Description:
Layout (H helix, E strand, L loop, with lengths): L5 E2 L3 E2 L39 H22 L6 H4 L3 E4 L2 E4 H4 L1 E6 L2 E5 L7 H9 L8 E3 L2 E5 L5 H34 L7 H34 L1
Antiparallel strand pairs: 1-2, 3-4, 5-6, 6-8, 7-8
Amino acid sequence: xxxxxxxxxxxxxxxxxxxxxxxxxxxxxxxxxxxxxxxxxxxxxxxxxxxxxxxxxxxxxxxxxxxxxxxxxxxxxxxxxxxxxxxxxxxxxxxxxxxxxxxxxxxxxxxxxxxxxxxxxxxxxxxxxxxxxxxxxxxxxxxxxxxxxxxxxxxxxxxxxxxxxxxxxxxxxxxxxxxxxxxxxxxxxxxxxxxxxxxxxxxxxxxxxxxxxxxxxxxxxxxxxxxxx
Length: 229
């Protein structure tokens, strides 16, 4: 008779191989902020739809204008060149200060603006200098404007940082206008290409704008570090 190994009196004891259940691999969600695939269209192939080279040049000009602004007007040491492009509102329209006044350095602490050629613009020039955001308080003697150069204090440095941020935001506004103009041109050319091509061009334009914004922010960070020391 076949013997059975029993547990208690009723159930046969069965031998089992141990079974291990492996945990399921969790789904990995895409992290926010992961770099997206970049578009790199051949500009020659889409030239009939829109000139991406022209768009790129316009965006670069915004960047160069900010660099020029930083060099001329956002400096620890005020120089005659800092006043050149201050905009003066006159009866004949908006003019740069150096178009209506002769700017010179009297001493390291004083800049002179001679308004003898356009004496009627003297009051407007004083107003423009005072409201330039450069912390300047001009004084007038007839048609001669005296501009004392402010001392380099912590407050002055922080004021220049604020001015740099304002100018950077203005540059971003100009950049948005370039992007919007390019997108509007693209909309008018939708019948020249497939929807897929149009979407790729839109993505390329947005990518170019994003790259320029990053460059603007980088220059602001460098200028801020320079100003605060």
